[in-house]
Amino acid sequence: MDALINAAAGTAPAIKDSSTAGFRADVIEASMEVPIIVDFWATWCGPCKTLTPILEKQVQAAQGKVRMVKVDIDQNQALAAQLRIQSVPTVYAFYQGRPVDGFMGAVPESQVKAFVDKLVQLAGHDDHDHVDQLLAEAKTVLDGGNAEEAAGIYQHILAHAPDSGAAVAGLLRSLIALGETDQAKQLLESLTPELAQHAEVQAAKSALELAEQSAGAIAGLAGLRQRLAANPDDHEARYELSTALYGAGQQEESVDELLELFRRNREWNEQAARKQLVKLFEALGPTDPLTLSGRRRLSSLLFS
Question: NCBIfam families, per this entry (predicted)?
């Protein structure tokens, strides 16, 4: 997991051979950095002997802006079947973990050059737009439940934009989702004062504090419900129940319990319910529907 916080240094070769076992690292993961051209070939393929040197020449001319991976389909039949390679030569281009272009058969060098130039242009768009696209992709991946992949994308962003507060916050939330709270705390401690005060980082810090609070409370959820059933004015039980519900992923119910506690006794434990609601809203984010509705309900109680 340390690899999610510390990027490995090194320069990859412009052209290399790969295999079924190495395909993910050599192509999918490497394409997060630069476009990767995959040349599927075979020793018996005459057109391959013409196309491959042309590809290599144009990739070398790109001076690291694209890289090339060669795969012998006879030695990697499972991979060829998985990618539905029906004839050789077949050339695919991957970028940001996905196929983005390709062609089959031997083509003129002018067409190969245009193919490579297009990939260079694809990867060379405005850095700010590039980061925004990656941030949106990472959020979608994290929201979809794949925290490990999201963490990798956020780490990639930080390798190129180390001052991105949004990427730091996303990595923190990914680590929290993976249960790596110690790693998340280490990351927070390593931040510059400016990054630590970034609004999204502060929100992620609140999410981390809530995750740590709720970790020990989830096991007692049933008992807390029983305590409240016996005594609805057991404010401590209601507060702890809210914490347990948040940890169990029942965020709306967690907000409901805090609002009910505030309604019953807003001054209990130095307005603990209101303070916890503020922290929860910060962790959820200002545009989350639950934050918006919760703030409205809290305001109604404050001025009732």
Answer: thioredoxin (TIGR01068)
Using alpha carbons, select from 131, 143, 140 the residue that is nearest to residue 168: 131
Across the strands, what pairs with 41? 72
Instruction: Please check whether residue 95 is in contact with residue 134, taking contact to mean a CB–CB distance below 8 angstroms.
Output: no
Query: Model confidence over 58-112: pLDDT tens digits?
Result: 999 888 889 999 999 999 999 999 999 999 999 999 998 889 899 999 999 999 9
Query: What is the pTM (predicted TM-score) of this model?
Result: 0.56
Q: Which residues pair with 16 in a beta bridge?
A: 69
Q: Which helix (H) or strand (E) covers residue 196, if one does?
A: helix 193-196
* Helix (H) or strand (E) segment spanning residue 288: none
* CB 14, CB 59: distance < 8 Å: yes
The total number of residues written for the chain in this structure: 304
Class of the domain covering 218-302: mainly alpha
The yes or no reply on domain 2-123 and CATH 1.20.1050.10 is: no
Residue positions annotated with a catalytic role: 45, 48
CA distance to 26, 98, 119, 126, per residue, from 130 (Å): 22, 15, 14, 6
Q: Are strands 36-41 and 90-95 parallel, antiparallel or unpaired?
A: antiparallel
DSSP, res 270 = T
The DSSP line for 224-257 is HHHHHHH-TT-HHHHHHHHHHHHHTT-HHHHHHH
Identical topology for domains 127-207 and 218-302:
yes
